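Exercise 7. Given the components listed, write out the predicted structure of the assembled complex. Treat all entries as one system.
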Amino acid sequence: MKVLSKYIGKQFIFIIALIASIILINNGAFASKENLEIELKPNHINIGTFYNGTTVTAKGKIPVGAEVVLRISGHYTELHLKKKGKIAGLLWMNIGDVTVGNVPEVFMVVCSQNMKDRIDDPGLNLGYKYLEKMMTIEPEYEDKGFIFKEFVKLQEKSGTYGIFSGNVRYTGESGGFRTFEATIPVPPKMKQGEYKVEAFAVRGNEIIESSAEELILKQVGFPALVSKLAFNYSLLYGIGAVIIAIFAGLLMGILFKGGGSH
Amino acid sequence: MFHMYLPIAGNSVNILLIFGLGGFVGLLSGIFGVGGGFLMTPLLIMFGIPPTVAAASDSNQIVGASTSGTLAHWRLGNVDFKMGILLLIGGIIGGTFGVQIIKILRAMGNADFLIKITYVIMLGGVGSYMFIDSLKGLRGSTATKKDESQGKESTYAKMLKSLPFQTRFEKSGIEISLLLPLIFGAFVGILAAIMGVGGGFIMVPVMVYLLRMPMHVVVGTSLFQILFTCVDVTIMQAYANHTVDFVLALLLLLGSTIGAQIGTSINKRLKGDQIKILLATLVLLVCVKMLYGLLVPPEIMVALKGGH
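Answer.
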């Protein structure tokens, strides 16, 4: 009986300690969230007929002495690529297919000039190196480092990947906090959907706090109607596109005949 | 400013730029009877349109431009419908066959190498031949040319006459076997499927040199045939792959339908040999551009799959 009560006592202490540690950890997390506040303006973007990309302003505060880094990513997918190489020692052409997986369609890091060369530090892992670790490659015998480097070049050229240093301004300090304002580019090639905007407060070589917000892009009006028709009524959409093209061709023919060009 | 969002391509474009691009390619279409996909698709990719969407939406706009061009050429009496339909039937058979050939070539490996090399050699060969031939014509050495080619022509003509199902093609003013347009249509269809292009600028020289059709009728008939090919491609791409961006096609259409009308008007004012030499120059330019692409190291060593 004594042994049993001793055993239950030990179990009880262990459970109490476990609950206490969970509360402490949670409190820590809450404190972390409370200390790193971020607000996106706007956090909802409408893609209309004449949309040509935009910018989002992120405002917030971090502890004094820290730097803020923002990371925007979304639409993790698998992409099929053609690999180029030299054939017969002379001609450059496609020499094989490579599939990269678990890569986002959008990946941007926004930071201050000070942080530009530090985002890939081992303790931080906020830049492309983080992405390279996550990326899968098929066939596996391909040179992952080389393919990743070229893939990033391709995405940067299209405007959906980028490291934007100098886009963060610190606007003041009060009560142990530093306020910041960052400009996040939203290129027109960023498709509709949900994107994650993560904010990290960095001190030295470690992330001391982090927080995340959602950025939503949505097609509205004419683009939304065209997308709906193209994906939900694809056959009718195809036939309709052909009929309108034929009609436009005929109309132009009639107009030009009226003009007496022939 | 002046930008429009393309919902399927997932990007925005400058309206004036796309309108101008459509106009230029429509102009070529009206003058030479080519679809212009070989020029339009790479330019669209350069402006940030995904390759698959660029190729499919271009097919959609070619439907409009070729309707406009066919109508204009039909008014001038330059469309041989009978010949066009036979070439089209041949083209469909050849295209289906070509898709199977490309599968076998890919399985054997090095298909892209073989295709590109064949393409460059063919473009260079056809372009040079047309250029020299039309230059001779323009210099007024037609009499000498006829004398020189008399022997060859008679052998070829004899072969043509020996084929069964001889039919008169009124518009083209020729009498040949029904089998010939079917065979040559299939040949171009196979090449077009393998190369991944519409085949307009392979078809035009075939009609001029192998079917012996007059240049003006060649252009009108080629456009008539391209119209049907692109109707089929547009519907299939929209249905199977959702890659037709109608907003993009519409912007291109506005330019290309006008361009095709102006092109036809230019075509009417040019002599057959003048059209041939201009087309030959265009074909040679495409050949040089491809060679340049093959010889100069690419800036980025990977590309997204799809397109031409």
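Discussion: The first helix of chain A runs from residue 2 to 35. Residues 223-252 of chain A form one domain.
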